[in-house]
C-alpha cells in the first residue's frame, strides 16, 4: 500500500510549492479572525454550543455500532440462515425500543425543546392560531 | 547487499510508484474536470454560457484556478492552532484520495484488492469528519466553528443511512470485496431489486459529500463559508480537492454498488489493448456526477433542523425496515448468496 | 360628428366561445398506488433475477467443492508415493554415511514397536 506514503507526500509538495512561490506579508487586518463589518469580539470565537450536537454524536455512536454489528450476519446469511436472522430480529427489536424512547424524549428535536414547560407563558399578546372572535 | 538485490528493490519501488501514479493522476485530473463540469452544467441549467475563456471551451479553467490559488498568500489567523490548522485540510485531502485504493477499474485493475474493501471505504468516509471538525476548531473563528459543528452533525447522522444501505447490499452479495460485488451483479444490476434503497442511499451520499440540499456548512448567507472560512490558498485547495474527489469517489462507488461497476454485456468483453471495462465504469460514474450537479441546480437548501429530522425520523426507520425486509425475502425464497 | 353609421356591437357570428374555466395544471405523474405497484414489480423482477444468479453461483461453488473432493484420493496417493521415495532415498543416504559404524541399522524406527507411523519429518 504505497499510496499511504504517496498521498501525504503529494500534499506536502503542494504546501511546499505554496511556501516557495507565494508572497507572505501578514498584517493585523489579515491575521485577525474573520468578522463582517466590525472587529471580532475576543472570547466569542469559541462559544458554548447547544447540547444537541453532542446528543446527535452519542446517538450516532450507538446506531452506527448497531449497523456494524450486523455486518457479520450479512456476510454469513447463508450459513446462519433462519436462526441467525431471528437473533438479528431480536437485536433489532431491542434497538427499536431504544429508538422510540430516544425520539419520545425529544433527543433529536432541535426546535420546541421544552414545549410543556413553556406552554404556560404566552409570549404573544394574542394567540395567532386561536379564533379571537373577529373573523 | 549486492547490486542485483538493490536493483530488485528499486524495481519494485518504481513499480509501486507507477502503480499509484497511474491511479492518482487520472483521479486528480477527473477531480479538476469535475469542477469545470459542474460550472458548465450549472450554466446550462440556468441558460448561461459558463466559463469559456481559458483554453478551448473553458476546459483549462480548473488548472488556471489551481495555479492562481497556489500562488496566493496563505493567511494563518493569529489566534488559530497553527498545526491543526494545517493538519485539517491535509487530512481531508488524504482521506478522500486514499479511498481510491480499493476501487476496481476493471478485472484485476486495482491498487489493492482488499477482502474487506467496503469496510475500508466506510472507515475512510468516517475519518473524513475529522478534517471538518479539526478545521472548525483550529481556525478559532465563530463562523468556522458553527459550520464545522453543523456539518459534523449532519455527516455523522447521514453516515448511518449510508452504512445501512451498504449493509443491505452486503446482504445481497455476502461479501465485502468490491470485485465479488461486481461479479454478482452479472445476474442483475442492484438498482433493479433495490430501487427504494438506491433512493435513500443517494440522499445519504449527497449529505455525506455535503452537496446541495444538505450543504449547510456552506450556507453562505449565514455562515460565510462554513468550516473553511479562515482557510486560504493551498489549504483551501486541499478542502476543495477533497470535496470534489469524494464526489467523484462516491459516484464511482455508487456505480459499482448499483449499476454493476464495469459489467457490460459479455459480447463486448475483449482481450485487446483497449480496456472497455474501465471506460464503462467511467461512463456510469459520469451519470452520477451529472446527478450531483443536477440536484444542486434544482433543489433548495434544507433548514438545519429539517435536515436532522429527515435523517432520524424519516430515513432511518425506512432503512431499518429494509434491513429487516431484504433478508426476509432472501431467506423465504432461499436465495441467500453463498 | 359621427363619421361612421351607428352599429350595434353584437357578439360574433356563432356566439362567443365557451369560457375556459378548465385549469391547465402541469402533469403530476402517476398516483401513489401506481408508483408503489410498479416499484414493487421492478423489485420483484430484480429479486427473481438475483435469486437465479445466486442459485447459479451456489451451483458453481458446489461443483468446485465436489471436484476437489474427487481429486483428494489422487492427491493423497501422489503425496504418499512422493513421501515413500524421499524416505527410501534418505535411508540410502543414512546407510552410506553410517557404513563404518558397526551395528548401525539404517532406517530403524525410533519407537519400540512395529506399528506403522507416517513419517512426521519432511525429507528433503
Automatic annotation (TrEMBL), chain A:
Instruction: List its EC numbers.
Output: 7.1.1.2
* Reaction equation(s) it catalyzes: a ubiquinone + NADH + 5 H(+)(in) = a ubiquinol + NAD(+) + 4 H(+)(out)
One Pfam family assigned to this protein is Oxidored_q4
Q: Where are the transmembrane segments?
A: 51-75, 82-101
Under the heading PANTHER family, the entry gives: NADH-UBIQUINONE OXIDOREDUCTASE CHAIN 3 (PTHR11058)
Give the residue range of the signal peptide.
1-16
Key words of the record: Electron transport, Membrane, Mitochondrion, NAD, Respiratory chain, Signal, Translocase, Transmembrane, Transmembrane helix, Transport, Ubiquinone
- Note whether Electron transport occurs among the keywords: yes
The entry's function note states: Core subunit of the mitochondrial membrane respiratory chain NADH dehydrogenase (Complex I) which catalyzes electron transfer from NADH through the respiratory chain, using ubiquinone as an electron acceptor. Essential for the catalytic activity of complex I.
Indicate the family of this protein: Belongs to the complex I subunit 3 family.
Which molecular function GO terms apply here? NADH dehydrogenase (ubiquinone) activity
Location in the cell: Membrane; Mitochondrion membrane
Q: Which GO terms describe its cellular component?
A: mitochondrial membrane; NADH dehydrogenase complex
Gene, per the UniProt record: nad3
Membrane topology field: Multi-pass membrane protein
- Main enzyme class: translocase
Protein name as catalogued = NADH-ubiquinone oxidoreductase chain 3
Q: What is its main location?
A: membrane
The record's listing under InterPro entries reads: NADH_UbQ/plastoQ_OxRdtase_su3, NDAH_ubi_oxred_su3_sf
Specify the superkingdom: Eukaryota
TrEMBL record, chain B:
Q: What Pfam families does its record include? A: NADHdh
Spell out the reaction equation it catalyses. a ubiquinone + NADH + 5 H(+)(in) = a ubiquinol + NAD(+) + 4 H(+)(out)
Q: Which GO terms describe its cellular component?
A: mitochondrial inner membrane
Residue stretches spanning the membrane: 12-37, 83-106, 118-139, 160-181, 187-207, 236-262, 274-295, 307-333
The membrane topology of this protein is:
Multi-pass membrane protein
Q: Which EC main class describes this enzyme?
A: translocase
An annotated GO BP: aerobic respiration
Q: Could you say which EC number(s) this protein's record lists? A: 7.1.1.2
Q: Which GO terms describe its molecular function?
A: NADH dehydrogenase (ubiquinone) activity; NADH dehydrogenase activity
Concerning InterPro entries, the annotation shows:
NADH_UbQ_OxRdtase_su1/FPO, NADH_UbQ_OxRdtase_su1_CS
The protein's UniProt keywords, in alphabetical order, are: Membrane, Mitochondrion, NAD, Transmembrane, Transmembrane helix, Ubiquinone
Task: Family membership, please give it.
Answer: Belongs to the complex I subunit 1 family.
PANTHER family xref list: NADH DEHYDROGENASE SUBUNIT 1, NADH-UBIQUINONE OXIDOREDUCTASE CHAIN 1
The record's listing under HAMAP family reads: NDH1_NuoH (MF_01350)
> Which protein, by its recorded name, is this?
NADH-ubiquinone oxidoreductase chain 1
Q: Species name for this entry?
A: Cyclocybe aegerita (Black poplar mushroom)
What does the organism's lineage look like at the top? Eukaryota, Fungi, Dikarya, Basidiomycota, Agaricomycotina
Give the gene name: nad1
Automatic annotation (TrEMBL), chain C:
Subcellular location(s) per record:
Mitochondrion inner membrane
- Record's GO cellular component, any one? mitochondrial inner membrane
InterPro entries, per database record = GRIM-19
Predominant localisation class: mitochondrion
Q: Which UniProt keywords apply?
A: Electron transport, Membrane, Mitochondrion, Mitochondrion inner membrane, Respiratory chain, Transmembrane, Transmembrane helix, Transport
- TM annotation in the entry: 30-48
Q: How does it sit in the membrane?
A: Single-pass membrane protein
Extract the Pfam families matched here: GRIM-19
Q: What is the role of this chain?
A: Complex I functions in the transfer of electrons from NADH to the respiratory chain. Accessory subunit of the mitochondrial membrane respiratory chain NADH dehydrogenase (Complex I), that is believed not to be involved in catalysis.
Q: Which family does it belong to?
A: Belongs to the complex I NDUFA13 subunit family.
Q: What is this protein identified as? A: NADH dehydrogenase [ubiquinone] 1 alpha subcomplex subunit 13
UniProt lineage = Eukaryota, Fungi, Dikarya, Basidiomycota, Agaricomycotina
